[in-house]
């Protein structure tokens, strides 16, 4: 086991990792920007090193500064958390080159799964269902028309070398395709130096289902069930739950097995998530992408599976085999997570940084967990994600979990900054959410218009 690890992150995930490491008897090193000098993760860690100014590009994204801090403090491993450098293959490779274990997959695996066309081809080889689309890159509008006619409209044009929302266009009908292709291709060439595109049929509305996997260094892969992340605003998750009400025993087995095959096919190591779209009308599910890191919503899976995912990440990186097999994983009860952010729903969810003058986080009772790095008097800086806390509940069944979350949100009290707490309470109290009758279209097309009228 490691003697000391460095956490290359901040906020609640840094605190989460520090706590897991301490319970494993491992010393921790926090890195922080000047804006985070008084942040909770710097106060909880055994050592704390300043790595630069508040701007993320000069601190939490500064690979050389982070590696220097690891070498200086003699850390044996680096946990990247989520966001920042967590899916940066160069960082993972550089850790390996200087003899520091990266707690995650290799840079080569990140590159394989990060390239959309490569990942798609790999999944087809592994027998994992993929969204109907083009076989490889499409270079001309004429090719795109032929593919679209074959797979059916609407289609999504995506830059082969894309990312960050660049070079993407949704096309509803054939007469719009040529203009959309030329615009998206030009945008892709300007941003990535490559105008090649690929096409996928649009599966919408759908359920956004993701499957948590763990893979050790000996090639053993186990999945921990699925999370339903369909409640999204502008493609950003708002509330997550596990298991999904839309998935029965047979489909759970099929989608879990597909996620395991996906991870095995690339020689995956550590924690990861395979994301799928589920077409409820047909019952078909399709691979979307793989997240090669721990995710914000991992606590709901921990509640229902009984597995501490962060501790397992550390154990796997230290060379320990998974202590369980697939048949040992039994999902119990139901878990829900609400993300509480410093943002103003009345003004299009604009960030609301500032000083938290008063804070009461809900507590008491079995099956309630709050992950946070905020405390009374703490000033939320304007440079980073606006998350204040994650409230996670676990009940014997879904209704029990819903009622527990409502109780927790009623108790929550945050003063000094605007938050989305009332928005979350309204969402969790909505009759369609209570019934589980929602998909990826619900929040933006049904709930938000009604909510904004009420505001």
Keywords:
455 residues; alpha+beta; Rossmann fold; Dna Ligase, domain 1; D-amino Acid Aminotransferase, Chain A, domain 1; 3 domains; 8-stranded antiparallel β-sheet; 5-stranded parallel β-sheet; 15 helices; 22 strands; globular
3D architecture notes:
The protein has 455 residues and is α+β, with helices and mostly antiparallel strands. It has three domains: 4-103, Rossmann fold; 141-201, Dna Ligase, domain 1 (2-Layer Sandwich); 207-452, D-amino Acid Aminotransferase, Chain A, domain 1 (2-Layer Sandwich). It contains 15 helices and 22 strands. The strands form six sheets. The protein has an eight-stranded antiparallel β-sheet with strand order 13-12-9-10-11-14-21-19, sandwiched between helices. Strand 6 (155-159) and strand 7 form a beta hairpin. Helix 4 runs antiparallel to helix 5 (107-114). The longest helix has 17 residues, at 249-265. The mean pLDDT is 95. Keywords: ATP-binding, Biotin, Fatty acid biosynthesis, Fatty acid metabolism, Ligase, Lipid biosynthesis, Lipid metabolism, Magnesium, Manganese, Metal-binding, Nucleotide-binding. Its EC number is 6.3.4.14.
Compile the SSE list and pairings:
Blueprint: E1 4-7, H1 11-23, E2 27-33, H2 40-44, E3 47-52, H3 63-73, E4 77-79, H4 89-97, E5 101-102, H5 107-114, H6 116-125, H7 141-151, E6 155-159, E7 168-171, H8 177-192, E8 197-201, E9 207-215, E10 221-233, E11 236-242, H9 249-265, E12 270-279, E13 284-291, H10 298-305, H11 309-317, E14 334-341, E15 343-344, E16 350-351, E17 354-355, E18 358-360, E19 368-372, E20 379-380, E21 387-395, H12 398-411, E22 413-415, H13 421-429, H14 431-435, H15 442-454
Parallel strand pairs: 1-2, 1-4, 2-3, 4-5
Antiparallel strand pairs: 6-7, 6-8, 9-10, 9-12, 10-11, 11-14, 12-13, 14-21, 15-16, 17-20, 18-22, 19-21
Pfam families: Biotin_carb_C, Biotin_carb_N, CPSase_L_D2
EC number: 6.3.4.14
Enzyme class: ligase
